[in-house]
Amino acid sequence: MTTVGDLNSANNTASDPTTVLPSIPDLRINKTHAGTFVQGQVNAQYTIGVTNVGTGATTGLVTVTDLLPPAGLTAVGIGGTGWVCDLAVLSCSRADPLAAGANYEPITVTVNVAANAPAVVVNQATVAGGGDTNAANNATADPTTVAASSVNVSVSLAAITLNRATGRMQQLVTLPNNGPNLTSLALAVDALPPAMALFAPDGVTAATAPAGSPYREWGAMPTGTVRAFTLEFVRVAVPTPPVTYNSRLIGPGPR
User: Fold this and answer.
1) CB of 253 within 8 A of CB of 184?
2) What angle do CA 114, 115, 119 make, to 5 degrees?
3) 138 Cβ contact list (under 8 Å, min separation 6)
4) Of 252, 205, 210, nearest to 227 (Cα)?
5) CA distances from 198 to 111, 143, 171, 234, 240 (A)
6) Is 88 helix (H, G, I), strand (E, B) or coil?
7) How far is it, in rounded angstroms, from Cα 102 to Cα 39?
8) Percentages helix, strand, coil for the chain, rounded to the nearest 5?
9) Three-class SS of residue 135?
10) Distances in whole angstroms, Cα of residue 159 to Cα of each of 73, 170, 192, 231
11) Which of 36, 62, 69, 217 has the fewest CB atoms within 10 Å, i.e. is most exposed?
12) Hey, CA dihedral for 87, 129, 60, 46, is it positive or negative?
């Protein structure tokens, strides 16, 4: 810059060095879960997040891969909005650009916990592609505490009554789950007297337990759930008093 009459030209110029950062994407991955898992639990969930912490948008395909521990967890679902996922290989991909500072929609991984899962399982995940050249933040691990299963199911047998319409004897069986965990449940009826035959409860064909006893089976029972059904017996011979039988729970376990 020059001005008429300016006699000092030494300070008539100025410069402003400006750093121009390259437009480079940098993908960071994280994985979380809520609470403590329980042995035998079904549909436990992990959440995977991907953030672009770089200076430029991603380009090309971005792939997230979930890495389950060798034992304790079985994947039953994986998905997220905008992702194309494959449960068989536990991976999700997408190619839409992710701007600097933005996040992709989260991915949810659903797992079942083995009944003999260890006290701690570590689920890992990785992200790759999109033009990312910084591998330092492309992997994550989520240590997960697994509590031992604990169920408390009781059996209540009402008095045996006679259904005069059918001529059969009936007994109401009530089974409350007092918690704290979910459970699957089977009730076996043992030691029927020779003069008695058991009809299938609630019109459902009675299965045969491993011990050879007729039994009734249910699926998941949340804490506080009560299962109830009516056993029916028919006299196939004149019994010798007293007529007794036993009921027992078999196979309760967290679900």
Assistant:
1) yes
2) 80
3) 27, 28, 29, 126, 127, 128, 132
4) 252
5) 39, 50, 11, 7, 17
6) coil
7) 37
8) 0, 45, 50
9) helix
10) 44, 8, 16, 11
11) 36
12) positive
Domains contained in the chain, CATH given: 27-147 (2.60.40.1530), 156-253 (2.60.40.1170)
Q: What is the pTM of this model?
A: 0.61
d(CA 147, CA 179): 14
Report which of 113, 142, 112, 114 is spatially closest to residue 126, judged by C-alpha positions: 142
Both tokens assigned to 149: 């299963």
* Residue that has been written with the tokens 């060798």 in this structure: 70
Least Cα distance to 129 among 149, 151, 104 occurs for 104
d(CA 153, CA 181): 10
CA-nearest of 139, 152, 149, 145 to 50 is: 139
**What tokens appear for 78 in the block?**
């994986």
CA distance 77 to 45: 9
> What are the 10-residue block averages of pLDDT along the chain, 255 residues in total?
66 73 90 92 95 96 96 96 97 97 98 93 97 96 90 74 76 73 59 55 42 55 71 58 48 43
H or E segment to which residue 235 belongs:
strand 226-235
Q: 């591998």: which residue's tokens?
A: 135
Q: Which two tokens stand for residue 33?
A: 């879960």
